[in-house]
Amino acid sequence: MTTSTGAPMRYWSPWLGAFVVAWLGAYIALAPHPAELAAQNGYLVLVGLAAAFIGNITAVGGGLVFIPVAILVLHLPPVQALKLAILSQCFGMTSGAIAWAGRGKVPARLFLAAAPGLLVGSTISSLVVRPSAILVKGVFGPVSVLVGVIILATRNRVGTRETLADKALPALFAVSVLGGLVTGWVAIGEGEIVAAFLILVYGLAPERGIGLGVALLSLNSLFLAALHTRFLGGLPWEMGAFTGLGCVFGARLGPWVSQRVSQKFLKLAFAAIAITDGLIFTVQFALRHGR
To answer: What is the DSSP-derived secondary structure letter of residue 70?
Structure first.
């Protein structure tokens, strides 16, 4: 892989090492019983790595992995699962955004045009129509299936545009509001909706669309984390510390792998995961609440 200047880009970097050192220092200093907590939740590092890898190689939020694992495997309440996904994505999508930006694949002009929309949508879905167990489980299934269909729709799309004309920016803003709205409820939506819209409708180069989607999900996750901390009861740091650590490495891995493995194969695999997850949640929700 090379950066936008043509220089080879390594997986490991000094800032990644600095993060590990800072994480260890903060963990030892702040955790009341570090060894016990690590024994209990250490496996979540692998969950975070897998989720961030998927999220950063396709612009799909890590919630695609976090929500099903947290609800179906860890048996967390749906809203707690949402909180864990949002907190973890703060690490994963930000790490990924740095990697994509380092490759010159995040169009700053489009990011600035879309950012206000995602903030509007996320505010509505967090503070006006607040996430609830029924809302999280009811929305996740259809959105996950839609994400899978979007991935399939963009699988063979080869755009060439590096940016958009000014007349397309209002539409980008509107789509970003929708993405922020959905992400506030299920932790996925902003990145893939915006990326797919720009790739399919305007022919934006796929890597530019994915890079933009990852950067927007980073901002969205940070904003949602702030809202949950201030207004919605806080975040599950005892679990998020471990998923976040894995996310930083998985997010770096996504763009690193993206030019070493067939994108069509990866998208097909991730689409299958998204559609399967969505169908499971949709059927369960219908059986439980359709009586």
So the answer is: I
| Residue 94 exposed, middle or buried by CB count within 10 Å (0-12, 13-18, 19+) | buried
| CB-CB contact of 143 with 278 (8 Å) | yes
In a domain, 2, yes or no: no
Alpha helices in the chain (DSSP H): 14-30, 34-41, 44-58, 63-68, 78-102, 108-123, 133-153, 169-186, 190-202, 206-231, 237-257, 263-289
| Residue ranges making up the domain that contains 191 | 14-289
Q: Is 9 within a domain?
A: no
Give ∠ CA 115-118-122 in degrees, rounded to 5. 145
Q: What is the dihedral of CA 70, 76, 82, 87, to 10 degrees?
A: -80
pLDDT in tens, 187-243: 988 888 898 899 889 999 888 988 899 899 999 999 999 999 999 999 999 999 999
Cα(156)–Cα(263) distance, integer angstroms: 9
Nearest to 94 by CA among 209, 254, 239: 254
Distances in whole angstroms, Cα of residue 129 to Cα of each of 53, 116, 132, 180: 30, 19, 9, 13
Domain count across the chain = 1
Within a domain: residue 8? no
How far, rounded to the nearest angstrom, does the alpha carbon of residue 42 sit from its chain's CA centroid?
21
The verdict on residue 3 lying in a domain is no
SS3 for 134-197 is HHHHHHHHHHHHHHHHHHHHCCCCCCCECCCCHHHHHHHHHHHHHHHHHHHHHCCCHHHHHHHH
pLDDT tens-place string over residues 146-165: 988 988 887 777 678 888 88
Task: Tell me the residue length of the chain.
Answer: 291
What's the pTM?
A: 0.87
